[in-house]
Amino acid sequence: MHYFEYRNRELFAEDVSIRELVREFDTPLYIYSARTLRRHFQAFDSAFQGISHLTCFSVKANSNICVLKLLAEMGSGMDIVSGGELFRVLKAGIDPQKIVYSGVGKREHEIREALLSDILMFNVESRQELEKINQVAGEMNVQARVSLRINPDVDPRTHPYISTGLKKNKFGMDLEQALSSYQLAMPLPYIQPVGIDCHIGSQLTSVEPFLEALERIKIFYGQLVDLGMEIRYLDLGGGLGITYDQEDPPHPAEFGRAVKDSLKELDLTLILEPGRVIAGNAGILVTRVLYTKKTPSKNFVIVDAAMNDLLRPSLYGSYHRIAPVQEKDGSLCYVDVVGPICETGDFLAQGREIPEAEQDDLLAVFSAGAYGFTMSSQYNSRPRPAEVLVDKNEVILARRREVYFDLLQLEEQCF
Ligand code: LLP
Predict the structure, then answer these.
(1) pLDDT at 155 over 70
(2) Per-residue pLDDT averaged across 291-314, rounded?
(3) How far is the CA of 349 from the centre of ligand 1 (A)?
(4) Domain span(s) for CATH 3.20.20.10 in the chain
(5) Ligand 1 pocket test: which of 41, 44, 55, 60 has the largest number of ligand atoms within 8 Å of its C-beta?
(6) 91 Cα to the center of ligand 1, angstroms
(7) How far is ligand 1, taken at its centre, from the CA of residue 355, in Å?
């Protein structure tokens, strides 16, 4: 459910016409709906009502400060994976006690920065990382709260690039290794093991893999209790999927019910790290048709957005619905929607049936609010698009469009 809707055959973001936004901000343009973000956060967070929990938005999905602030105002915490994300969330005014820090390769300075800010906890992914955190915390004479990330070897049945909880993945530790790592952690003077963490993958469209993981975690938790450990948190990660096309993922309420049911006998604070389910359908990317081109084998619609702006179709073959901003009658046509970048893999859609597009038409690429702008680059020296946040009839320029000077700013010493 989102608030990008047609009114008199013209696409609106909440109460603002997309055409008006494009007139002011040009294309390609990322547009987020504040009302949709709030609604999604609320739907997700309220699914865990009745149990002690903290919803930490996964910043990698959408790290725009305006978006982070909006979510923080609703009580969201943040799941970060780098010093850069820590910097962002602190700038957005997030309470450090609502920050969890995941990722397999935390650097020493990043660990120091997180300890200085007194974040809630580190999700630790290896023994060496545990020892490194102990060393850095020791130098600072502070205690680091940690959860160890376990890899429960559960198949999330999603795209291989975004499945993370299988034995062959680089993430976390298998149950045996994790148990010995907790034993290693117990006597470490600057480490306080307070939780168990797990994240099995992204864009999951059923609750079963989560429940399978929980079953394994519960047994594991029992083993930690037997060791005399005081575990207070269970971080289940993110991963709940959304509808891009025909997918039918469980509603957050159903996900919440199933998780609460599985955890009912345990006295733990649940942490969740949703990204896509909050931001994915709260954003679109608007692009303009530059040219159309018919070849003997294909019809191409060449647009001004490219893989540098939205990488998902090129990287994962992901589907994003594409529709004209101004609804039209007329014939449908099978096309490849492609960008100006010099790569065959630069497409937003392939073999897609859309109303025949003409030069200067505006197209909306839906479900682009998560892993859209955050995965963008300047490849082919293309300045990144602007981001705007619409709240009813209010428009906030959340990030200005990059200009040519931004491309060279860090090379000034070479001019
Ligand atoms: N927590 C951890 C430790 C994660 O690694 C991730 C995502 C999340 C939470 C949030 O997952 P979500 O709720 O958004 O599924 N670029 C890919 C997605 C990569 C996800 C990486 N980790 C895409 O565009 O589909």
Answers:
(1) yes
(2) 97
(3) 22
(4) 34-277
(5) 60
(6) 22
(7) 33
Residue ranges of the chain assigned to CATH 2.40.37.10: 4-32+280-413
| Best CATH choice for the domain 4-32+280-413 from the list 2.40.37.10, 1.10.1780.10, 1.10.3720.10, 2.10.109.10 | 2.40.37.10
Residue ranges with strand state E in 118-240: 121-124, 144-149, 191-197, 233-235
User: Is it the case that residue 158 has pLDDT exceeding 80?
Assistant: no
Residues with Cβ within 8 Å of 213's Cβ and at least 6 positions away in sequence, in order, are 152, 154, 165, 198, 200, 236
Please give the torsion angle defined by the CA atoms of residues 138, 141, 147 and 149, in that order, rounded to the nearest 10 degrees.
Answer: -30
pLDDT, one tens digit per residue, over 222-243 is 999 999 999 999 999 999 999 9
Check residue 165 and give its pLDDT. 65
Strand 16-17 with 10-13, pairing: antiparallel
For 132-146, write each residue's pLDDT tens digit: 999 999 999 999 999
**201 Cβ below 6 A of ligand 1:** no
Tell me if residue 66 is catalytic. Answer: no
State the architecture of 34-277 in CATH terms: Alpha-Beta Barrel (3.20)
Residue type, 399: R
The mean pLDDT of the chain is: 96
